[in-house]
């Protein structure tokens, strides 16, 4: 069933665009954030997302928000830096701003990010400058990012259709049609194109929890991914005392939230030293404005020792050179090929969506909450269990309808988990 056909089968199709946008905003606040009365909200968004920002702000205040503060990004301004900025600019980031945001989180603020910037914004820029700017931003943002990866705060990400993004997703359409199609795809993937999205999210979350509890009960030592064409033959060892997560989570501040809208994954922490074999990406990766296509890497002892791509290879190699942890895994996730996002047939060129269309792995920082008692451990204790540490956390897709996945017990016994991309 196409995205448009799915929309047509609900009363959602009869709503005005403004009503649809309002429903997404309501889900972002009530389901995504679970925002509590008295909380501040720190939001980031592209300039084009202003109508959605305003509706989210309204719902946040209706939910009792103390204050909503939004930081906007502007693609032409970002390009101006790369075209006219001094060389020193690319090793600099506003640490003072990131420190302030981290302090806001420590003081109880929730975090909401709106995705929608042009995935190909920096595709024609100097990869060295792109990499330097990313490293500087990662270093400056580390205090805030650590609070997010530890799930100390309630946070979520939702998306907004923007013209440049829409033209990439639907290249053969006039821009107005492309934007309209992308909005409809976002509404469906975000599970708001139903008669009661809050109930739908509750039921979807319960299904993910059931799958997560099964995986936690198995206590697998590793996962083995093997594609039908043989390009992927990868064993991902799982961290000692790993925990599977999926759907919503209770943050360290006690608030239950859905960190990603949409979400279709069950995920956990790999062991940083126990990943071996070859793997090829099943979808392109859009990273910081650059499209990286047909990624193929080889792991030995947990570390990438060879990496290629047919487009964006320079950016890929600079990415994995950010620090030692950038060559190791911080997440592995299982997603069935029958997920609504995969079945829509839409390639979003955006990790928020594409990672929920396929099983995936992430380079870099591990989630400490995916270890038993991990949220209370220091860096040394986490590393002892196999959790990776890095300035980056970048997901890329490896699953498809041609992928088999086995769970491997400590004694080496394998049990089928997925066949041809579907749960057994």
Helix/strand-derived category reads alpha+beta
**Beta content:** 15-25%
Taking the sheet with the most strands, its summary is: 8 strands, antiparallel
* Fraction in helix: 25-40%
How many distinct helices? 13
Low-pLDDT segments, ≥5 res: none
Global outline: globular
What features would you describe in this structure?
An 8-stranded antiparallel beta sheet has the order 15-14-11-6-5-19-20-21. Strands 7-10-16-17-18 form a 5-stranded antiparallel beta sheet. Helices cover 35% and strands 25% of the residues. It is globular. By secondary structure, the chain is α+β, with helices and mostly antiparallel strands. The longest helix is centred in the first third of the chain and has 23 residues, at 127-149.
Name the descriptors.
424 residues, alpha+beta, eight-stranded antiparallel beta sheet, five-stranded antiparallel beta sheet, 13 helices
Topology:
Layout (H helix, E strand, L loop, with lengths): L2 H6 L8 H17 L6 E7 L3 H13 L4 E7 L1 H10 L10 H12 L3 E6 L11 H23 L5 E5 L3 H7 L5 H15 L7 H22 L3 E6 L5 E6 L6 E2 L2 E2 L5 E2 L8 E3 L1 E11 L4 E3 L2 E3 L3 E5 L2 E6 L4 H7 L9 E6 L5 H5 L6 H4 L5 E5 L14 H7 L7 E5 L5 E6 L5 E6 L2 E2 L1
Parallel strand pairs: 1-2, 1-3, 3-4
Antiparallel strand pairs: 5-6, 5-19, 6-11, 7-10, 8-9, 10-16, 11-14, 12-13, 14-15, 16-17, 17-18, 19-20, 20-21
Helix pairs in contact: 2-3, 5-6, 6-10, 7-8
Summarize the structure.
Helix content is 35%, strand content 25%.
